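Take one record.
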Amino acid sequence: MTYCVGMVLDKGLVLMSDTRTNSGVDNISTFRKLFHWTVPGERIIAVMTAGNLATTQAVVSQLEERTKAPSERENCLLKGATMFQVATAIGRLLRGTIDEVQTANGEAGKGRFSATLILAGQIRGMQPRLFLIYPEGNFIEASWDTPFFQIGETKYGRPILIRGYDRAMSFEDAVKLLMVSFDSTLKANLSVGLPLDLLVIEKDAFVATHEHRVTAEDPYFDQISSRWGDALRAAFHSLPGYSFETKGGSGDQAP
């Protein structure tokens, strides 16, 4: 499984992904799922992947190959005029790759080679943008109502993001929030695992503002994990106590 999050802030974009892939409990590997390409002063484009590993690697490899192409139509990452055009081209590539593999595998391939992507980045003269690209090749864009996207094993870390997210928050606070979200997911699901890859993209910088790989020995992540657990226990014990002598703890006397 996978867990990836892309987040839009007033200051820019923050992305984080895990690196675990598995085909059963006895076949666990580590593969990068966060990739980015930069033309300094002009654009930065990042992609995160979730789904069948062979499919996602084929898509990323083709994108990498296309960065060497001279035409805008083929080299969407480095020459696409807008992020919308980049999303459209990557969506077509994703769907085409899935269709090709499924056709080659016949009935056995149906549903096995699916993948979902998060696309993030900024092109000079435009705002930073974030897209969620579905296996069918269509996509949606982040908005004020939906300012972050998750792919993979989303359910355990989502409540943290919903409660803690603030579009005006600093990059540092956004990273801290993502660390808590990932820690909660790691604790609940063994199919998501360290190391984690982090990428921060400041608005109008057109380069990676901050990159970091979070390993099991990372002291900051260890502190986040430990203190978050302590904080949850403290918050739990600070809540009003339930009494069997009242209806639902409301204070009304039982009959």
About this structure: The domain at 3-154+191-216 is CATH 3.60.20.10 (Glutamine Phosphoribosylpyrophosphate, subunit 1, domain 1). The mean pLDDT is 93. The longest helix spans residues 83-105.
